[in-house]
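Structural prep section.
Before we set up the soaks we want a predicted structure of the protein with 4'-deoxy-4'-aminopyridoxal-5'-phosphate in place, mainly to decide which crystallisation condition to try first. Input record follows.
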Amino acid sequence: MPKQRLLPDVIGHTPLLYLREVSELTGCDIYGKAEFMNPGGSVKDRTALGIIQAAEQAGELQPGGVIVEGTAGNTGIGLTLVANVLGYECVIVAPQNASQEKIQQLEMLGAELLLVPAAPYTDPHHYIHTAERVATGRAREEEHGAIWARQFDNPANQQVHFDTTGPEIWKQTEGKVDGFICSVGTGGTLAGVAGALRERNRDVKIGLADPMGSALYSYFNGGELKSEGESITEGIGVSFVPGNLAGVDVDFSCRVDDDDALPYIFDLLKHEGISVGGSSGINIAGAVALARELGPGHTIVTILSDSGSRYQSKLFNPEFLWKHKLPYPEWMAN
Ligand code: PMP
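Run finished without errors. Recording the tokens verbatim:
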């Protein structure tokens, strides 16, 4: 019997799920890559493994060493999971507005957790800048050294998607994929998958789905980093161009309101049994927009980044949604 182990066998290789309702709505075949089925529950398990393996190969991580990262949660969960298997410690700096479910998961895995008040990226107390300072300090103090994972700029992030997520999508669609679209946190997924698909077919259309409050839509439509509105989604939307996104061309971009994204999540749960978080709602709305742009008969792939259970207290809580003036279905209120 094969002796499958968490590492390296179980991260990635996720199913590509046919999304029936949005496919019927648009006349395209829309698929979601089920990244919520990774062992740490999100697409960021791939990033975590890629970053840690690259640091090991570069000789930057010593056994017993410390990995520091600023993350809204999912990267921290992936890093701590992989670190537990490979014998490292993790220090995770997260904003206080990250969902309580992600914080609990980080605590359960044994991460050393530093919660900081949510602040704009320009503020030196923003969780990413705090993580850099903590990493510099710990590198001096720790017996086995410390590294800053720096997922926004670390090329190992997009590389792992170039090496795994993109080729998996190509294979699972039997090369028939016409368009790929997703939102951006670090840009690792979009950059890596775009590179892998374009390498196999230059005509694949690459799209960006940007939540409100993010500056990337305006950046790709006029070159200016400007944002408007806000979003309750987590892990996506940035006010700067992450290193991992620099130089990536997109063929199509759209801005998605939470009001438009959330019904896709609720319908997917109720009608197709698939539970996903807010960023997947933005991604699905983006896939619908790209389907409308390309017209019926095309095959479009997006990312189902993490699970709805990670946001039970927010996305699936009518009180929370009501407070934020967001729509929720009748069945949720009962
Ligand atoms: N969705 C969720 C829930 C995430 O945590 C992230 C990672 N920040 C993303 C989407 C975006 O992925 P990437 O960092 O590869 O752009």
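Observations: Residues 206 and 251 are 5 Å apart (CA to CA).
Flagged for discussion at group meeting.
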